Amino acid sequence: MFKIAGHTMGTPEYTVFEAIELMHNIGADGIEIVVQDGYKSGLPCDCSPELLEQVKACADKNGIQIICLTPYNSYFNSLDEEQRQAEIAAIKRVIGYCDVLGAKYIRIYGGNLQAGDTYKLVERRNKLIDSMRELGNVAMAHGVTLVIENHFNTMAVSAKDSASLIAEINHEAVRILYDQANLTFTENEDWQTAIALQQSYVAYMHVKDLVFKEGAHFKSSNVARPEESERNVYTRIVGQGVVPWPEILRKVKELGYDGWLSLEYERRWHPDDIPDASIGMKQSIDYLRAIKL
């Protein structure tokens, strides 16, 4: 059976300490924690050693593994060298946080690239590859894996793009974060195609669910999330949307995946779509655990 983590994107009303306690109470095995200034259920970008130790102690007390950290840096492909180096330095700090917290993964955006942007794509892709190889070396020395998410407004928006990018980076500490819901609402590959293209590179998975808005098509001006007017879907409790999680999980298990499932319950962005994590994330966990693999 897969281990299940709850993502603090789903707990905007909770502090990190309260979110950890919630994960214990709803039967999760671990937690994925946002690293971003100003978010109640996250760690600050410049996190003090004292706070890191307190968070680790809380997780240990509640039997919750801090499995992944999620910073929001994305300009690893920037042609502005000062900007690119600042992003690299930020991830190196987060790798240091993993040492204290015991986290094994860091979610990474595959650069920053708005849809339709064709400016110096080869040069920017090469910068992204250079950044990931440098960070991969640091991550490996700390026992951490960087997982590049299938995500809009990046150079890893599709499974095809993600697999090609990881193959070219060619670093065992830089892998793919498989997010079929993202591939679905960005109108990229179906799950069968996505798994065939990229599963050999997948080290971590996000799980969420959705239903489509009638007649809407996806667009986003922001790498982190679409604005309300840009959305083509509503987010849902896992099992109440269109993503066929039983089939997906059976297939990745058949292919040898036995890693983590992280519930990227998007209440932070879409609080009107789904209930509090104590309800909806628990129902999602119960649904996943009931799938016969």
Topology:
Layout: E1 3-7, H1 16-26, E2 30-35, E3 42-43, H2 49-62, E4 65-71, H3 81-101, E5 105-108, H4 121-141, E6 145-149, H5 159-169, E7 174-178, H6 180-185, H7 191-198, E8 202-207, E9 209-212, E10 233-236, H8 245-254, E11 260-263, H9 277-290
Parallel strand pairs: 1-2, 1-11, 2-3, 2-4, 4-5, 5-6, 6-7, 7-8, 8-11
Antiparallel strand pairs: 9-10
Helix pairs in contact: 1-2, 3-4, 5-7
The order of strands across the largest sheet is 1-2-4-5-6-7-8-11
What string gives the helices and strands in order? EHEEHEHEHEHEHHEEEHEH
Given helix and strand content, the structural type is alpha/beta
Shape type = globular
Tell me the strand percentage band: 15-25%
Counted by DSSP, the helix tally is: 9
Q: Which range best describes the helical content: under 10%, 10-25%, 25-40%, 40-55%, 55-70% or over 70%?
A: 25-40%
The end-to-end span amounts to 8 Å
- Let me know the number of strands: 11
Radius of gyration computed on alpha carbons:
18 Å
Q: Largest beta sheet, briefly?
A: 8 strands, parallel, barrel
Query: Which regions have little confidence, pLDDT < 50, spanning 5+ residues?
Result: none
- Estimate the mean pLDDT confidence: 96
